[in-house]
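Worked Example 4.2. Read the sequence first, then its structure tokens.
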Amino acid sequence: MNLTYRQRHLIDYLKEKTGYTKQRQILEDLSLYYDYHGGDLHNSGARRALTQDIREIREEGSHCLFSNSRGVRLGSVDEAIAYHARRVSTFGRYINKEKAILKNFGLEGQQAYDGAVKEFVEGNG
């Protein structure tokens, strides 16, 4: 996935900041790109566009953005690695828990109508 013009401006903007920057401040400073003119931040199309850009930048994988109640900031490579390693570990625990629940229901190892034996492995569900 390639970043949009607006997303690249958001990254450049965040590179100039230290620490967290509130979404309202980002939208005010980048109002040309987000068409934000003040008012109700939480119900604005500009905020929805910013939130979508943050999500797409994260999913694109070339930059690590942290977003929470303190604001938004660009993370370092080391922070990105640690963040995503924690997520993999967390999701791995969820997958293992779900596999155990399925096993409790007796689905693991059952034979399907087509003769295939159902086994739950990562990426197969």
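Now turn to a second chain, presented in exactly the same format:
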Amino acid sequence: MRFPPDVQKRLAKEYRFAATKMREESDPFRKVFFFSALFTELSRNLNWYWNRDLVLLHWVLQATHSSLTQRAQPTSAALNMASFGVLLERLTDVAEGLAEYMERGGEAGNLHELIGRIAEIGYLSTPHGSYVIEKGLVKPDSI
């Protein structure tokens, strides 16, 4: 998918910065904080360039961020925090994939595959997702 050059350049720059910061972070709260840059930068760009695929990406990023934020709360302590750490690492991988996708002007990889991986991570960070992990139906490190 092609974007106007200025949109592509801004998204590539911000996505690379966020992905790099996520990779450097060990604190899960800070990792999720840097992840939030992915959908907030899209919000800015959607104010003047409308694209249905970018809206879908924004929606999934924002919903995943919400799930991760809830999962990181102390009330979620009963959930498997080891699997949460693995989910955050897979999320960092996807953020790097999005950065590469934007850096190559929408030519590298499949955006819908990346969106699907983000949605999967968001779902697995919910209580039911944690249950599915505990049952062994999904292995977070295989996402």
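Notes for the reader: The mean pLDDT is 90. The chain is about 75% helix and 0% strand.
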